[in-house]
Design a protein that fits this description.
single chain, alpha/beta, Rossmann fold, 6-stranded parallel β-sheet, 18 strands, 45% helix, 19% strand, globular, binds 6-O-phosphono-beta-D-fructofuranose
Length: 497
């Protein structure tokens, strides 16, 4: 079993004089003004859930774009601050983007072009030349900031996600001999038919192939990537070795199913702050004596939230005896609200909740509670721990770590997971109740099945799911990537995993 300590040993013993740097658009912690004070909060989303425990173990440097109103108040002259606040263990270096850069690089090319391009949810991507130009400009800004930090030292640079496709190429051009580069793609990689509509597809591929190692969640995404390369670029593809060679540079392509700090969450479940939060949440939302169905998501059109509300509606139509006995609590973290598609989604979800509540409510009960307020990590774990059923219904999702966090939180080996077939995590979790979120009847029946499953069956499934996630935890995931990277510099070092 890989632990935080094993990962620390691996890094200390094997990295030699290489700096260890993680780079992403999303910063792991943001500083916000709240009631006249500066508060440090962990950012939402799978990338931070996965990589923050790794960085807390590794004590490296994380470079990311600033995103909150008080970020500049706590950093030093070079944009640095130690995080997390309560246990400073690694350095966050913030990059400052202008409003225009945020608009065109983050909202524009990253989230109106690449995000819908990679997720098969029938949302049309928007390609604007000015967004692409700005995307390139911001990637260069990241490259300059990284090289300024490194000087002439050697470094392993671990790039995250789809916002930084050109960064590896810029880095290798500017510092060809001192860097080992890996990139992890946190979202699905589409098939060729979908990808070929992107006007900048060759530049994107060329940028990514400057990496020494490129990781995806699942093998299927690796195959899609190799197919796209095959059709678009002159290169040599080695399907045995899973690598691409272009202009004499080889990039390894690998599946690494991302995970969570299972043991950390498992330990926190019975900590006093979680136990307190558990009690308070039951009071706040009047949950005592009711079966609780839970959804926790960033409010994103890929997550299948409107479909989930329709499935609850369907189940209550079919099983009116559940009225006053169940409640569906949806925690939605507001996200990318500046974009019209996200604002529309919020309005649609709100309207749909009101409609379903109107249809089924009684004088003393309504079936759906929509919560948008910020919740602490302790409150989130308490929600996982108190619910009877957790629903993850993404229309398409690279992995989905809500499913894995829910399982880690069930130290009591109770609770049932309803999970979309179209998530990466469905491949590791066949013991969930698997559903097609597009099929309202199947989805409604799936939630009903989970709610009414007998105790022995529920426990049997949870025990198996916990065993799967406990061994493939985030430290093993990080160790696999780092061990592969080590081989580039230290050929004799092969770490058994
Ligand atoms: O998982 C994909 C991803 O873009 C991550 O990079 C990020 O953690 C999450 O979605 C949230 O997105 P954003 O950074 O745009 O809030």
């Amino acid at each position: 079993m890989w632990t935080k300590e094993n990962l620390q040993d691996l890094i200390r013993d094997k990295l030699g004089d290489y700096l260890f740097i993680v780079v992403s658009n999303r910063e792991p912690y943001e500083h916000v003004f709240h009631r006249g004070k500066i508060v440090c909060r962990r950012s939402a989303g799978g990338l931070v859930t996965a990589l923050d425990p790794v960085m807390q173990a590794c004590h490296g440097l994380w470079i990311a774009a600033a995103s909150a109103d008080a970020d500049h108040k706590v950093t030093d002259a070079s944009g640095k601050v130690m995080v997390p606040e309560e246990n400073p263990s690694y350095t966050l270096k913030r990059i400052w983007l202008t409003k225009e850069e945020e608009e065109q690089y983050y909202y524009g090319f990253s989230n109106e072009a690449l995000w819908p391009l990679c997720h098969m949810v029938f949302q049309r991507p928007e390609f604007r030349q000015e967004d692409w130009d700005c995307y390139a400009q911001v990637n260069r800004k990241f490259a300059n900031a990284i090289l300024e930090e490194i000087g002439d030292r050697k470094a392993f640079i671990w790039i995250q996600d789809y916002h930084l496709c050109l960064l590896p190429k810029y880095l290798k051009e500017m510092a060809p001999n001192q860097l080992i580069l890996a990139q992890f793609w946190h979202i699905p990689w589409p098939n060729y038919e979908a990808f070929r509509i992107c006007p900048q597809r060759r530049e994107i591929l060329d940028g990514l192939l400057a990496n020494d190692l490129l990781g995806f969640h699942i093998r299927y995404h690796c195959h899609n990537f190799l197919d796209v390369i095959d059709r678009e670029l002159e290169s040599k593809i080695d399907r045995e070795k899973f690598s691409v060679t272009r202009a004499e540079h080889e990039t390894l392509i690998r599946p690494y199913p991302i995970s969570i700090d299972f043991q950390g969450i498992d330990q926190d479940v019975n900590s006093p702050p979680v136990v307190n939060a558990h009690k308070n949440l039951i009071d706040e939302f009047d949950l005592a004596g009711k079966k609780v169905i839970l959804g926790i998501d960033r409010m994103d059109y890929t997550k299948g939230i409107p479909e989930r509300i329709l499935a609850i509606d369907q189940m209550l139509e079919q099983h009116p005896e559940l009225k006053e006995k169940v409640v569906f609590l949806q925690k939605g973290v507001l996200s990318r609200l500046h974009l019209a598609q996200y604002k529309d989604l919020n309005d649609r979800v709100q309207a749909s909740v009101e409609q379903v509540n109107w249809k089924h409510s009684t004088t003393k009960w309504k079936p759906i509670i929509l919560v948008k307020r910020h919740m602490t990590q302790e409150e989130i774990i308490a929600l996982y721990r108190l619910c009877d059923v957790c629903v993850v219904s993404s229309l398409h999702d690279g992995m989905n770590l809500v499913a894995k966090e829910f399982i880690a939180s069930r130290h009591d080996e109770d609770g049932c997971l309803v999970l979309s077939h179209f998530t990466g995590s469905a491949r590791e979790l066949p013991d969930a109740v698997l559903i097609n979120p597009y099929d309202r009847v199947e989805f409604g029946n799936g939630i009903y099945k989970a709610l009414t499953m007998n105790d022995a069956e529920r426990k049997k499934r949870m025990v198996k799911m916990r065993a799967a996630i406990s061994s493939n935890n985030i430290f093993r995931w990080a160790a696999k990537v780092i061990s592969e990277l080590l081989k580039f510099e230290f050929k004799e070092q092969v770490v058994a995993l």
